[in-house]
Design a protein that fits this description.
Layout lengths: L1 H15 L13 H76 L2 H20 L3 H4 L3 H13 L7 H17 L3 E9 L5 E9 L3 E4 L4 E5 L4 E4 L8 H10 L18 H8 L3 H7 L1 H36 L9 H11 L5 H19 L3 H33 L4 H60 L1
Parallel strand pairs: 1-5
Antiparallel strand pairs: 1-2, 2-3, 3-4, 4-5
Length: 460
Amino acid sequence: MKMSLIKSAVVASVLAIASSTVMAQDARSLDQLLNFVKQGQATEAKENKAREARFKNAKNRQAQLLAEAKVMRKNEEDRSARLENTFEQNELKVAEKQRQLKERLGTLTELFGHLTSTAGDLRSSFGNSLISAQYPGRDEFLDELIAKMSGAEQLPSIEEIERLWFEIQREMTESGKVVSFTAEVAKPGGEKESRTVVRVGTFNVISDEGRYLQYIAETNTLAELARQPSGAYIGWASDLAGSTSGKVPFGADPTGPSGGSFLAALINSPTIEERWHQGGNVGYAITAVGALAFLLAIWRLIVLAAMSSKVSAQLKSDKANTNNPLGRVLMVHEQNPTMDTETLELKLSEAVMKEVPKIEFGLNLLKIIAAVAPLMGLLGTVTGMIITFQAITIFGAGDPKAMAGGISGALVTTVLGLLVAIPTVLLHTVTNGQAKKVIHVLDEQSTGIIAEHTEAQLGK
């Protein structure tokens, strides 16, 4: 038992000093193991002494660094006191200099105040002025001038004050001129090219191709409007770009050089073709029906005009001609001269009735189209309003322009229906009048023939 305890103690000692190189050896006996333990303890004692020596040296070094830090802090505190004293003296000097500057400026302070206000207003005007596209760099000059007049380090020179007056006069003078100059123009696709542009005062600027341009103040560049105004405005712009003197009509926008409200309204206003497309499928159907009615009415007018001409020629002829309705009716009497009055009257009525459908062909269709076209327009309007209100239900009515645009598009079909119905009614009236005129001649002549035939029989 005692031997086991000794072995356990020895093993614990060996594990405690396992880092020693001596203990790394294999012991062959207990005496050798005890010797190894003794040597390990001696090595540890030596290492501990070396470690304690290093700790003492480090402690001495820390004390030395602490002393040096205290000396440095004392020096910096002395320097800070000197700088504070110098700063207070400089503040007194600055206050004295500012007082002297204010006394020497005198009434110039008020003058600089007015100049600063004027330069600020002019800077705001130059920001959106088309003249800045022709004369760049004016904004930078005004910024420097305002900084000088607002600060206390520098004073504006006489030349700078005179230039401020010059820029005001040049802005006023150039606003009444129509001039051309070369500038870089950005195309809608993003590419840039140098072109000759024409500036109309401070209202509009166009390219040499007759395209309206937009002035972008942030980049001081000109850009071609992606959508140009329709109508005669493009033609006027082309005429102005190609003219060298004289008077040329031109649509100037007085509300701004970057596409003001008037020009924007013209640009955003849809063309007739775009409005027609807004009608959708119902609009296309109304257009097709209207085209059919127009072609049918023109064709019937031509046919009735030719027919009326032949009937007029027949009235002047003594012999019936079968190339016209009246001739075919008269042919019945010529072929049956001895027929009794009642039978002849029935024969002539039959002949007239045969001609009436040919004369009135297409008139009922014109009448139906005139009645159906407004109903088709109303159908398109109701359908468009349903779609608009569904969109409002989903997205809300926060954008009045979008809601108004949807309602406007829905009403296009109503306009198309009326545009078809009104001319169709007029064409139907004219065509029906021509047809009634021919039919009246047929009835008149047939009645006259019966009267003559009756008189002839009574005379016998």
